[in-house]
Design a protein that fits this description.
The chain has 160 residues and is mainly beta. The chain is built from three helices and ten strands. It has one domain: 4-Layer Sandwich (Purple Acid Phosphatase, chain A, domain 2). It is globular and about 35 Å long.
């Protein structure tokens, strides 16, 4: 993705769709400059539908085992608004020090627990699960807004 520094950049963040792209999630993601999918996509049609909204960067999660998913990377680096973002599915698999590597944001999924946490100057952001509800966890997506190098994270619980 080309780095955009002159304007506010809005990134839609979604994870753990497990083959279900809810209309409520689509509505929240509209207007995004780019959509980041943190894995457990479940079907290639999910990426195709998201691409109708904005360009998509997607990584492979542990349920993405079909032949269609082989082309997806396990991790990805995204540049947006002078901010470097590291994407992986399972935070437990993080094999680097994001602060030392120069990452400002780490986006992950897997746990289905939405979370925004800052540690040592790095924002850790899990948008939660946008797919089938698990246990009593909310169904949610997220947004990152980047303006002049400042990152603001937002969780949006979907009414489903």
């Amino acid at each position: 993705m080309a780095d955009v520094t002159e304007k506010t950049v809005t990134l839609g963040v979604i994870s753990d769709t497990h083959g279900l792209l809810r209309p409520e999630a689509v509505n929240v993601l509209r207007g995004s400059d780019r959509i980041l999918h943190a894995g457990d996509i479940g079907a290639p049609e999910i990426i195709e539908a998201l691409a109708q909204i904005a360009p998509v960067t997607a990584i492979r999660g542990n349920v993405d085992t079909g032949s269609w998913a082989r082309a997806l990377p396990e991790t990805e680096v995204v540049e947006a608004g002078n901010v470097t973002i590291y994407m992986l599915h399972d935070l437990g698999q993080l094999g680097l020090n994001p602060e030392a590597a120069g990452f400002r944001v780490v986006i992950y999924g897997h746990s289905h627990h939405p979370n925004i946490e800052e540690k040592n100057g790095v924002l850790y952001f899990n948008p939660g699960s946008a797919g089938p509800r698990r246990f009593n966890l909310p169904v949610s997506v997220g947004k990152l807004t980047i303006e002049t190098g400042t990152v603001r994270a937002e969780l949006v619980e979907l009414k489903v």
